[in-house]
Amino acid sequence: MFIYAFISTQTYYVSILAILGMLQVVIDKAREAKREGKEYGGSFMIFGEAETEQENNEIALRRKVELMSKYKQSFEEVENQQKEQIEIENQKHRERKNKNLRQINQLNQEIKTQEQSEENAIQKLSESSPEQKIILDREKDQEIGEKLRNMSDQVNETDKLVEIRRHELDNLEQEAQQQRNEIQGLRKLSNNQQQSNKRDEQKDQQESDEEIISSRINKKEKLKENDKEKQRKKEKEKEKEKKKQNEKEKEKEIKRETEEEIKRKNENIIQKITIDKKEGSFEDKQNQEVKQEILIQKEKIKKVQEIEIDKEKQRKKEIGIDNNSISNITTRTLPYEFQTTIFKYLAVLDKQRNGGIAIVRGNEEIPQMISFNEMINLKGIVFALPYVQIWKRTDNIERIIEQQSSTSHDTQSKTQDLDKWIHLNLQLDFETEERIAKFFIGKDMNEFVGVGIKKLPKDIKVVVMSQGPLKAYMSEKQNRRGDEITELVPFSV
């Protein structure tokens, strides 16, 4: 090994050691300083560092061997502990098996002892005297006889109840037959009245159809014919009033006759009761029959009164129909051109008067003045006031299909406020393939009608109608509203 040292003024101690022949001490300290990253007595160029690296490798190997030995020892200790635990558990399991086997053997012995005791008891019973058997049989026979007696008593009681119920049913059947006969008489009277009412309705329908035909033929002739028809109507009204008066008189006579008959029957019944009381032959059954007859007579009177009430209601309806036949509603057609967009039509109307919005075909002729009956008879869809309803009329069916709004109760409660006006909205959605129409109420369209119209034709008219003042607006390219409306009825007009 050759070492060449560059000695500075600060390394006198190292140089002295080197001169004195103690190079080995200097080399060891220089190696230690190098390992620690320090300098010792100056800088040295040490040749033969391979020996130091070998020493370092040997030290590292020794450490690895020590670690491996420690790891093996710990691993062996863990294995030994696991083996001990497994042996302990196996011993416990064996002990449990032995206990279970002992219990099973004990139970088998107990079962055998019980079987032997039972066999001994059976032998003793078989060896017992026949006199005891006879006594037991007698006791059993007595019990059975008592049960049979109780059952026979119950059967007799049920037979008596059945006979009583039969008598009651016979009496009820007789009373029912009497009531049926009376009901049949009342039905005949009501049928006759209904037939007369149907005839009057048929006449009215024929007259209304004739009026519609005449209005379509010529508008000028219609004005002239209206005056004549009004006169005819007045004459017919007079005739109807005469008929009604005659019917009233007849009804009054029938009432008088029925009341007189009832009074006579009551008087006869009262006389019979007084005579029977004197003689002592009056019974509870007769009292019941008298009461039933009185109740039947009262029911007759009630039925007659109900018939009169129905007639008054029909009379009021006829008066309303006559008012609805007067042409006092003005019409206005709004601009429309088919486009694939969403249209909105708004009409501001007096909510207490007749009016509405209608969708009809483009070739339909709408007069400037129409009646309420003509409005709801338009071939198309009519969103009408004052009841907030949708009216639809088809070509095939000569009648009006009325469809209430799904929010009719809410709309009536909300619109009946201090405000005199109501806002009716119509949305035509032609962006969809089905071409849907939906109806709304209010400025902000906050209320909707639960029924919509689908499959609208491209050639249509939008007509606004009102019995009083009217304002109408139209706008295009609006936002879609009313996704809640899922029930859609086809136009089919």
From TrEMBL:
<keyword id="KW-1133">Transmembrane helix</keyword>
<keyword id="KW-0472">Membrane</keyword>
<feature type="region of interest" description="Disordered">
    <location>
        <begin position="186"/>
        <end position="258"/>
    </location>
</feature>
<feature type="transmembrane region" description="Helical">
    <location>
        <begin position="12"/>
        <end position="30"/>
    </location>
</feature>
<feature type="compositionally biased region" description="Polar residues">
    <location>
        <begin position="119"/>
        <end position="131"/>
    </location>
</feature>
<feature type="compositionally biased region" description="Basic and acidic residues">
    <location>
        <begin position="197"/>
        <end position="206"/>
    </location>
</feature>
<feature type="compositionally biased region" description="Basic and acidic residues">
    <location>
        <begin position="134"/>
        <end position="150"/>
    </location>
</feature>
<feature type="compositionally biased region" description="Basic and acidic residues">
    <location>
        <begin position="218"/>
        <end position="258"/>
    </location>
</feature>
<protein>
    <submittedName>
        <fullName>Uncharacterized protein</fullName>
    </submittedName>
</protein>
<feature type="region of interest" description="Disordered">
    <location>
        <begin position="113"/>
        <end position="152"/>
    </location>
</feature>
<keyword id="KW-0812">Transmembrane</keyword>
